[in-house]
Write a structure and sequence with these properties.
The protein is an alpha/beta fold. The chain has eleven helices and 13 strands. The protein is globular, with a radius of gyration of 19 Å. The protein binds oxa(dethia)-CoA.
């Protein structure tokens, strides 16, 4: 038994935030943001929109594309680090919105690698014969959790809101050239846990999960050692692509599209250089959506499908790197 992508969907909020709109509040310039990150604009939600709302919209589109409804699902995997509430998991809120039956609804919290972790687990459930149809989603609302002041300028320029989804379905004994997921590989290294993190709220805080003093000190905002994360991403992402290729006896020239995590265009250019591939084979969305963490890869894949860039039968490699550190890859035929 193998799994294949039966359909994809995505959703981004209508509100566009350009670099110009952010620059003054962050004490930077639109040019600095674009030159150092490749980002021109990102989408931010308004009002009480929730992560599960974005996930719902992307999921409905993916299910339509796959020709399934919520009653056909055997499992929901939702990757997010911006949950609707601390608990229960956002996958449960998504399940309720979809009116899905009493299937497992699982949150995956692996930051920028969340989607590849979720994809890996969904694929393995299908290979094991435990599920036939799995909804795999990445969804994030970062805009409500950023420090939009000069103190947070290195992090807050990067992040956007959005969601991407896929329906994975079981396929019995496919031939090598059939649409399928060939392999997934996931890794983490907790020595990097504090290179990109938000300290509070959390049970590691003294006394209370969060205090007024924590909020005043900005301990609830993400902070990052940007240069260190950058250097590790440029090392781990090519490694993970080679791991995917080696596991399948595939050659890099056979891959038609690379979908990399979108944290910084310069990271992806450096990764392409290390892999000795032309940058035009990397489907970048960072200029328009920024970094949407777990949503990035499915949002990119669905954008490529919608724009006619990605077609059935093409060989695709995915790679990601993010907080944790976590990283991983997948090789699939779309
Ligand atoms: O998605 C999860 C994974 N995340 C990533 O992979 C992100 C990785 N890191 C990055 O994308 C980049 O490191 C940043 C975009 C965050 C920063 O770009 P950089 O070219 O690596 O800059 P830097 O951190 O080396 O900082 C260079 C200078 C510093 O000033 P000094 O120390 O040289 O005086 C920073 O304080 O740029 C300063 N700086 C800024 N200046 C204007 C940092 N952010 C800004 C800003 N505007 N927004």
């Amino acid at each position: 038994m193998r799994s294949r992508i039966a359909g994809t969907g995505s959703f981004t909020p209508d509100r566009v935030i350009t670099n110009f709109e952010l620059a003054d509040a962050l004490g930077t310039t639109a040019d600095w943001i674009e030159q150092r990150s490749g980002i021109q604009e990102r989408r931010w939600v308004t009002g009480r929109t929730t992560t599960s709302d974005l996930a719902f919209e992307a999921s409905v589109r993916a299910m339509q594309a796959a020709g399934v409804t919520a009653v056909d699902l055997d499992m929901i995997m939702l990757a997010t680090i911006s949950p609707d509430h601390d608990f229960p998991g956002t996958a449960c809120f998504l399940q309720q919105k979809l009116h899905a039956p009493e299937i497992p609804a699982i949150d995956v919290r692996q930051q920028c690698s969340g989607f590849i972790y979720a994809l890996s687990m969904a694929d393995l459930y299908i290979r094991a014969g435990q599920a036939k149809t799995v909804l795999v989603v990445g969804a994030e609302i970062h805009s409500k959790g950023l420090d939009v002041s000069p103190r947070g300028r290195d992090v807050s320029i990067l992040f956007g809101d959005g969601a991407g989804a896929m329906v994975l379905e079981a396929i019995e004994t496919p031939s090598p050239e059939d649409s399928q997921i060939y392999s997934t590989h996931i890794h983490s290294d907790g020595r990097g846990a504090k290179s990109l993190w938000a300290e509070a709220p959390g049970q590691a805080m003294a006394g209370h999960r969060i205090t007024v003093e924590d909020i005043e000190a900005g301990r609830h905002f993400p902070i990052m050692d940007g240069r260190r994360v950058f250097m590790n991403a440029v090392k781990r992402m090519p490694e993970s692509i080679y791991e995917a290729l080696d596991a399948n006896g595939a050659k890099i020239d056979e891959v038609e599209w690379f979908f990399f995590h979108q944290a910084n265009l310069r990271i992806n250019e450096a990764v392409a250089k290390r892999l000795e591939i032309d940058g035009s084979r990397v489907f970048n969305t960072i200029a328009r959506f920024g970094n949407t963490t777990a949503a990035t890869i499915p949002l990119g894949i669905d954008t490529a499908v919608t724009e006619g860039a990605l077609s059935r039968g093409q060989l695709v490699a995915l790679s990601t790197f993010g907080a944790g550190y976590t990283w991983g890859s997948a090789l699939l035929r779309f």
